[in-house]
Amino acid sequence: MSPIVLGGLLGALFGASLLLVVRRLPFLRRPSVDDRIGPYLRDLGGSDVFLGVVDSGSPFYAILRLFGPSLRAGANRLERILGGAGSIRRRLARAGIERSVEEFRIEQVLWGTAGFGAGLVVSIVALAFGIGNPVGMLMFCGLLGVLGVLARDTYLTTQVRRRERRLLAELPTVAELLALSVAAGEGPAAALDRVARSCRGELAEELKRVLGETRAGETLVRALDGLADRTGLLALSRFADGLAVALERGTPLADVLRAQAGDIREAGRRELIESGARREVAMMIPVVFLVLPVTIAFAFYPGAVGIRLIAG
Question: Domain Type II secretion system protein GspF: where (predicted)?
């Protein structure tokens, strides 16, 4: 590495460190109203949780608390740039993640920082071997940071899809168990409680949440409507709506649940057939663009070589 590049990197590192120190000086910090009254409103008997880490003496929690203000500032700035807090809140609820939008933005900042750090390490190694230039490497680091921020958003969408697939896979079994419990003489709330305690999975946790809302004073119909709104799945919305309508109008609940379980299984079969058809079409891409050209090359290459030898 040339002395000019090394001096520029050291100067940039020193300038960034000095800027961080100056920004954190006490007389330059203006605490917000939330920061001033937060300690007086905090529940002294409960544990403090930050980014899913419970208050403890671990070094990881200490590091999170040390850089907490900077992370929150970066999260607020990222929220002003990207926006879409409502969409993120809905996707967090559909993914079953008990976190706020601010915590998700902090995770995006951490992912972006990790991407920028990885790019910085690669850039330093490349510059040490004389590859590239500092400006291009800085742009490369910034690009990796942006990709890290977007990767966390994409991973949230992946988490939503995985949870929705698990919910759809569990729904027919849960519906049939509810039908058996109701046919055995139990009421709707008791049947939900029995199935929620007997089953394991995402849908069982949602049923436990519904029962918790009913014990808190909410009606079962409204709690089921909240379940349909949280998940966003059409099949689960139909299940909750059918259960609510059966409760309101006195329709035989066991028959409704059995019919819904059959409809859900039939919809799963149709989706499986459609997925197989799409994958069959997708398999034509490697066949046409990879296997077929290689086959043609193996078929015609010996003949082309023989014609060239005869002509020579």
Answer: 176-298
The range of the structural domain enclosing residue 159 comes to: 3-25+58-163
Is 47 contained in some domain? no
Can you tell me whether residue 50 is helix, strand or coil?
A: strand
Asked whether residue 205 carries a pLDDT value surpassing 70, the answer given is yes
What is residue 99's three-state secondary structure? coil
Task: Give exposure, 120-130, as e/b (b: 16+ Cβ within 10 Å).
Answer: beebeeebeee
What letter does residue 48 receive in the DSSP assignment? P
CA dist., res. 263 & res. 285, Å (int): 34
pLDDT in tens, 31-43: 667 667 766 665 4
Same domain, 120 and 17: yes
Task: Judge if 152 and 199 occupy the same domain.
Answer: no
Q: Is 92 left (phi over 0), alpha (psi -120 to 50) or beta?
A: alpha
Any domain includes 267: yes
DSSP for 240-302?
HHHHHHHHHHT--HHHHHHHHHHHHHHHHHHHHHHHHHHHHHHTHHHIIIIIHHHHHHHHHHH
Q: Is residue 153 part of a domain?
A: yes
Q: How many whole angstroms separate alpha carbon 266 and alpha carbon 165?
A: 15
**Is 310 part of any domain?**
no
3-state secondary structure of 53: strand
The pTM (predicted TM-score) of the whole model is 0.70
Enumerate helices (H) and strands (E) in the chain, giving the number of each. 14, 2
* pLDDT at residue 46 in the model: 45
Round to whole Å and give the CA distance between 306 and 239. 70
The DSSP call for residue 57 is S
The pair of three-digit structure tokens given for residue 20, joined into one six-digit string: 């961080």
